[in-house]
Hints:
The protein is an alpha/beta fold. Helices cover about 20% and strands about 25% of the residues. The chain has helices at about 45-55, 135, 140-150, 185-195, 210-215, 230, 270-275, 290-300, 320-325; strands at about 5-10, 20-25, 35-45, 75-85, 95-100, 115-120, 125, 175-180, 200-205, 220, 235-240, 255-260, 280, 310-315, 335. Helix 3 packs across helix 4. The longest helix has 13 residues, at about 290-300. It is globular.
Amino acid sequence: MSVQTMKAARFHAFGGPGVLVYEDAPRPEARAGEILVRVRAAGLNPPDWYFREGFTSLPDEWRPKVDFPAIPGTDISGEVEAVGDGVSGFSIGDEVYAMVNFPEGMAGGSRGYAQYVAVPASHAAIKPVGVDHVHAAGAPMSLLTAWQFLVDLGHEEANPLQPGPHVPVPLDGRTVLVNGAAGGVGHFAVQIAKLKGARVIAVASGKHEALLRDLGVDEFIDYGKTTPEDVVRDLDLVVDSLGGPTSSRFLRTLKRGGALFPVFPLGFDGHDEADTLGVTVSATQVRSNGAQLAELAPLLASGAIRVAIDSTYPLADVSKAHARAAEGHLQGKLVLTVD
Length: 339
């Protein structure tokens, strides 16, 4: 029996953006518990380039085995093409969006940079009404990250990043600083914090001020002109969407009893200082969750949460999209359009 094919963006060895090639690949099928989605748009996220590079930022013991050729991508929006056994709640033709198989399938399985992807039904939700595929595909990973950090963890899986589970903190009436506020996670974090009643301070480069003011931030700090940790004090929460070793600089901006949430916690070395200051440092690994995407869909449909798009690229130009990501300073999300 001949194998059906599709177009996909794959890589046959680890490397830079140039290793990504647009080529024919086997088309997946919907197994039990899955839906097959005809992809119309696919969002880009940092794990996509971590995957392409070989997870070099992760400790050796955390690096999953990769079978080549590999297809990156978790975030998709499209139409249901087929429904597997045991699936309810989805029908052929439904427009859906999803974060697919993350983190459990981060190095293999059916992936999003393709014309078709098999999605566990529990990871998908009906696409927000009135939101096009590009904007829907820009939401899942970044929006779920912000939501799971700030509002609802959404699962009871063991936390690989710290001894105990991540616990969101109350936001109503609190002062929250978001670093990297114009990026994928950051621009959702400022909107969620505002929705939940917080006073929000956004830190980003000056070119992003208009967007962030439009999203409702109460105060804007241009890090190119002002060092935020030198001028801000008595915060209740800092969400550092950049994370890493430099997150510890925000500890002194927090009041005793406050919290620092580094979205990328690897390399953080300020735990002793945090203990001395009485500050909680906590992080979590975002996980696929179709029920949360269904909960968030009305907020996206109403415009209460908006998806900012930096730029779009055809799937065939995937290497150009990854090169744009490497430049940094994104305003919102990068999205691939899929013919």
